[in-house]
Amino acid sequence: MVKVHKITGSYGANAYLIDAECPILVDVGAANMFDLLRRFLNPTDLEYIVLTHCHYDHTFGTAQLAEQTGANVAIHEEDAKLLGDNWATASGVFGVRAPSIEPDMLLKGGESLDLGDISLRVIHTPGHTPGSICLYSEDIRRMSSSKLLFSGDAIFAAGGIGRTDLGGDAHALVNSIKLLTTLDVDTLYPGHGDATNQNVSTQIKTSLRYAELNRKAHNSKDFYVFV
Ligand SMILES: [Zn+2]
Ligand SMILES: [Zn+2]
Hints:
This protein is of the alpha/beta class and about 230 residues long. The chain has helices at about 35, 55-60, 60-70, 75-80, 170-180, 200-220; strands spanning about 5-10, 15-20, 25, 50, 70-75, 105, 110-115, 120-125, 135-140, 150, 185-190. The structure holds zinc ion (ZN) (2 copies). One zinc ion binds near residues 153 and 162.
């Protein structure tokens, strides 16, 4: 049985330790992540650090953790290009420079990450950023039958959506969330806020409605802000 541990970082972004045979961490929103991981495993056992997107609050502890653990860093190729950019990573919002991160693996979407007792499909979901990804457990062997979606900042619980005004694309976000509505999801693990396992498909459909509203606002030049 694979366990998922949520570790909320300094700026409110959720990291998830997927404690599979081949353990991986989704996002690194804490400078002391190595110590935080000790509660659950020997951090040097970590195989991969997968970044859902390039934003600072999800990535700033990555270089240090990769050095401490030897884990390989994976990110979508479109967001890999943006990693050093203060604007695109939103590091300027936090008053700091974008950290230097050297990815080991560039993703395109469609890959399957085999973690031994679970495998995760990489789904390219642009909109919040050009290279945002979600991870979906499609092939479950010894795990219970639950289907998991790690959504980064594409969607949140209760119909929330990621903002598209920081280098994002309101049209692309609608298309990405449409794709997510086709998945069978039992538990949603978003990049901010609570995970949820109640009527998740209804929540994702609500996200789609908000994304369509956001696109409409974008077209009409009205200004809506989603966090
Ligand atoms: Zn973000
Ligand atoms: Zn975020």
